C-alpha cells in the first residue's frame, strides 16, 4: 500500500513512461494497457532522456523503429483505428525536422478523430545554448518554434516547462484521447533539458488505473423530438458512419434498421458496418458511392445520420439529398450532430439507437419504399459484378479489387487511402465481415497505405494472427512513402501489398480532364520536365527491402500471386499495371463541388465550368 505522502524521484521522461505503463482500459471485460507501445526515431532531442526511460520497459512497452516520422504517425493512427479508438500508440521524434515530419500525420489523426500521443523534443527551456542545432529562431518571439505548428492539428497541446506540470498534463492528454466527442491527437513538447530534470513525484500519480470509455446517454427531449420527426417519414433512410463502429453499436444499428424496416447507406468511414448481403444494406453513399444509395438519398424525406461528420464526399457537397429532406443528427459530438440545421441527438449511438427505437415503437417504413431501395441495390450489385470481372478489356483497379475480394478470408483487413483507390474500393468492395475495411478518406492522405497497413497489422497480430492485412496502393503513393515495407519485414508483421501502377497520379489527371483541362504534370508521360519517361521496377524495389515480390500481367495472374502471398509467412508485394484512362467506376457518383476556372482561353474549361455551375441548383445552403 502506498504511503499518503510517499514520493518517487524521477526524471520527467521516466515519470511519463511510468505513468503510461500503469494506465489500463477495460475492453470486453478484459483489462489491457491503453498504450500499446510506440513508434520512435531517436535523435539528440529525445534519445538521452526519453530513450533512457523507455529502455527498461522495452518488453512491456514495445518501441517500433520507424523509417520516417510521418509514416510512424500513420501507423499509430491505423493502430488506433483497428482498436476502435480504445487503445493508442505514442510517437517520439527529435527536436526540429524529426518532429516537423509528424505534422501531416497529426493532421490525419485530427481529421479522423483518432488518438495518438506525440512525445517530441523541444529546444532548451533555459535558452543558455541558443541557438541550438535545428532550432528555428523567431527574433521577436523566442518562445515560438516548430512545435507550435502542431496547435491547429491536435486536440491537446502542451509544452512541459516544469517537471510538476505532467501531473496535470498527462491525465488531461489521456482524457482527451479517450473522449468520444473530442478524441484526437495529443502533443507534449519536451524541452531537452526538462526531459532530464528530476522531481519528487507523488507515488499515487503512478497507481494502476483502469479507464472506461464514457457512454453519454441522449437527452430525453431530443429523443422525443427525433421520434416525432421520424414517425412522419414516408421515405426514411439511415446514414451509417464510422462512429457506429467506434461506439460498438453495429448490433444496435442493425436491430434498429430491421425493427423499423429502414434502408441503410454507408459513408466511406462507415464501410463495413453492414455485410454485403445484409438485406437493408443499400450501398455506399455520395461522390464515391453507388447508384442505389444515391437514388434513395435523393428521395428520402427523413434522414437519420448516425456517427457521421457529413463530409462533402458523403453529401455530394450537399446535393445528394432533397432540399426539403429533414435530417436527424445522432452523434456523440455536438458539433457533428447539429450540422446543416439537423435535429441533434447528442449521445452515444449504442444508447441513443435503442432509446429512439423505443420512442418510435410500432413505426415501420412503408414496404414499397424499402422494396424500391432493395431493387436499386440489386441493380447496383449487377453493375459491380460486371465492373470487377476480368474480360477483354484493360486492367483496372476494379478488377484487382474483385480478384482480392473473392480470395480474402472474412477477417482479412483491407487498407487504402488517397488517389483513385478509395473511390474504387468503396464502390466495388463487398464487405465480408464487420469492421474489416480501412479507407482513410478523412484526410485523404497519400502515404498512409503501407504505413497504415503496418500499424494495422501490429494491432491485428495481437488479436487475429491468422488474418491478413491487405494494402491497395497506387504507384504515386508508393513512391511517396514505401519504407514501411522494410519495417514490416524487420518486425515480421506480414503485409500483402498490391501496387497498382497507372503511370502517375491518374485520378487527378482524370479530374483535370473532366474539368476541361489538358493532361499536365500528373501522369509521368505528361510532365514537361521529364524528357524520357520510364517505369519504376516496383518488384525489384520492394524485393530490395526484403519482401517476396511478383509482377502480374492480368487479373488471372494476380489471383494466383495473391494465393501464394496468403500462403506465405512474410510480406509480399504484387505489382500489376492498370490503365490510367479506361476501367474507372463510372456509375454511382454524385455532384462534387470543385473549383473551376470562370475565365479561360480554353473553350473546354469554360464549358465544364458552366456545367459545374448549372448543377449547383441542387445544393442545400444550410437548410
Automatic annotation (TrEMBL):
Chain ranges of the Thiamine pyrophosphate enzyme TPP-binding domain: 440-575
Example of a GO cellular component annotation carried by this entry: acetolactate synthase complex
Keywords: Hydrolase, Thiamine pyrophosphate, Transferase
EC number(s) per entry: 3.7.1.22
Domain Thiamine pyrophosphate enzyme N-terminal TPP-binding span(s) in chain numbering: 39-133
Gene3D superfamilies with a match to the protein in the record: 3.40.50.970, TPP-binding domain
GO molecular function: 3D-(3,5/4)-trihydroxycyclohexane-1,2-dione hydrolase activity; acetolactate synthase activity; flavin adenine dinucleotide binding; magnesium ion binding; thiamine pyrophosphate binding
Listed Pfam families: TPP_enzyme_C (PF02775), TPP_enzyme_M (PF00205), TPP_enzyme_N (PF02776)
Database matches in InterPro entries: DHS-like_NAD/FAD-binding_dom, Myo_inos_IolD, THDP-binding, Thiamin_PyroP_enz_cen_dom, Thiamin_PyroP_enz_TPP-bd_dom, TPP-bd_CS, TPP_enz, TPP_enzyme_TPP-bd
GO BP terms, alphabetized: inositol catabolic process; isoleucine biosynthetic process; L-valine biosynthetic process
Domain Thiamine pyrophosphate enzyme central span(s) in chain numbering: 223-356
Family: Belongs to the TPP enzyme family.
Name of the protein in question: 3D-(3,5/4)-trihydroxycyclohexane-1,2-dione acylhydrolase (Decyclizing)
Gene expressing this chain: iolD
